[in-house]
Design brief:
With about 400 residues, the chain is α+β, with helices and mostly antiparallel strands. It folds into three domains: about 40-160, Hotdog Thioesterase (Thiol Ester Dehydrase, Chain A); about 165-220; about 225-230 and about 235-385, Roll (Thiol Ester Dehydrase, Chain A), CATH 3.10.129.10. The protein has helices at about 1-25, 65-85, 165-185, 210-215, 260-280, 365-380, and strands at about 40, 45-50, 85-90, 95, 105-115, 120-130, 140-145, 160, 245-250, 285-295, 305-315, 320-330, 335-350. A hairpin with a 4-residue loop joins strand 12 and strand 13 (about 335-350). Helix 2 runs antiparallel to helix 5 and helix 3 (about 165-185) packs across helix 4 (about 210-215). The protein is globular. Mean pLDDT is about 75; it is low at about 1-35 and about 185-195.
Length: about 400
């Protein structure tokens, strides 16, 4: 009798579901069809959060790493909805955090599919906090995702068809970014040292900020890390800002295709960069004010140990910049793979405070200092950073 009741209830629920589907036009089949690869409208994701104590630092402000993690969640969902496939994070361009976000504040984030190429999806992310403000959002960023199949191979992307003026504007920006990315590498795969070399005289002045931001997502691979010195057998003074964190990559931090969540990796990276910045600044409280390029080189596989190394590579009286490099170790095979590089910039919480000067002790450190100098000068041209001489 018990079994009969269960089957009868199941039949009644199934009948009601089918009737509801007929009335509403919903597809109630248990196995949904995968849409054909073609042209599809983009996806938009809205995310609201509160700055709770567990996501704030000891100064009472939202951690920048948590912002990056939320961006990855919203951006990946928008890209996944569009592709109907799991995606991996490929890169994020520079962003500026002009004001710290205090404890108890509301954060509103929107991610929109902005552009598609044959094998990648560009997602525009905006964020505001507190009461809604007219005009520009408090944060704008552009993320690139790549859809993959269950074997980790790239798959074709359904093409996005922009319809509104805002969508057409974002799509055009995506086209420009892709063209800049294509030109940014010489045949020998070294990064062009100056983005103005790419399209001199070919684009309008209003498109230069877009070119600069896309160029800054590419961190030159030829730059050696301070801990990768060729004369590593020689004794050297360890920088007080050098940090080496190790995070085990466990099952609970995996994404849908079995590698580490990009948002988790970004959060870990920001924590390491912050530790370096605080060690260098001493007793002066600092906050993260920007990200100047983050490039995902390879995914972090399961059952690995992520080595996060960071060090301050640049300073001015008003700011300092930490470089983060992530490598994953397979202890069973004795192998290492580089996964990510990024620059994080910090400023003193007290505007009257001053950062100590950085002394470069090797050619590697000097090359990194000059690289950040170049990036900060480009950022100043965009209006995102103050002039240190002012």
């Amino acid at each position: 009798m018990f079994c009969v009741d269960i089957h009868a209830s199941y039949a009644a629920v199934t009948c009601r579901t089918r009737v509801l589907g007929i009335l509403t036009g919903m597809n109630t089949n248990r196995r949904a069809r995968r849409p054909n690869i073609g042209v599809r409208a983009g996806s938009e994701v809205h995310l609201d959060e509160w700055v709770a104590p567990e996501v704030a630092d000891e100064l009472g402000f939202l951690r920048a790493g948590k912002i990056l993690e939320w961006m990855d969640v919203a951006g990946a969902l928008a890209a996944t909805r569009h592709c109907r496939r799991s995606v991996v994070t490929a890169s994020i361009d520079g962003m500026e955090l002009h004001t710290p976000i205090p404890l108890g504040e509301r954060v509103a984030m929107t991610a929109r599919v902005a552009y598609t190429s044959p094998h990648s999806v560009g997602v525009s992310v905006t964020m505001d906090h507190g009461e809604p403000h007219p005009g520009a959002p408090g944060l704008e960023a552009y993320m690139t995702f790549v859809p993959i199949d269950r074997k980790g191979r790239t798959v074709p992307v359904p093409q996005f068809s922009p319809e509104t003026p805002a969508e057409r504007s974002r799509f055009r920006e995506g086209e420009l970014r892709r063209e800049f990315r294509r030109r940014a590498l010489h045949p020998n795969l070294t990064l062009v040292s100056d983005p103005t070399e790419l399209v001199e005289g070919e684009i309008e002045e209003k498109d230069w900020p877009l070119l600069v931001r896309e160029w800054m997502t590419r961190l030159p691979r030829y730059l050696r890390m301070p801990w990768e010195r060729a004369d590593s057998q020689q004794p050297r003074t360890r920088s007080r800002s050098y940090m080496h964190k190790i995070e085990p990559v466990r099952v609970g931090s995996m994404n849908f295709h079995g590698t580490l969540y990009g948002g988790t990796l970004m959060r870990w990276s920001e924590v390491s960069a912050t530790l370096s910045a605080r060690a260098f600044a001493g007793r002066v409280p600092v906050r993260c004010t920007g990200l100047h390029g983050m490039c995902f080189l390879r995914p972090v596989e399961r059952d690995r140990f992520a080595h996060l190394r960071s060090v301050v590579v640049h300073s001015t009286p008003q700011s300092l910049t930490s470089l983060v490099s992530v490598q994953s170790e397979d202890p069973e095979q004795g192998s290492y793979v580089e996964n990510l590089r990024a620059f994080f910039t910090y400023a003193p919480l007290d505007e009257d405070a001053r950062m100590p000067a950085l002394e470069c002790q090797s050619d590697e450190e000097l090359a990194l200092f000059k690289e950040v100098e170049k990036r900060m000068e480009l950022q100043r041209r965009l209006g995102g950073l103050p002039d240190p001489a002012a």
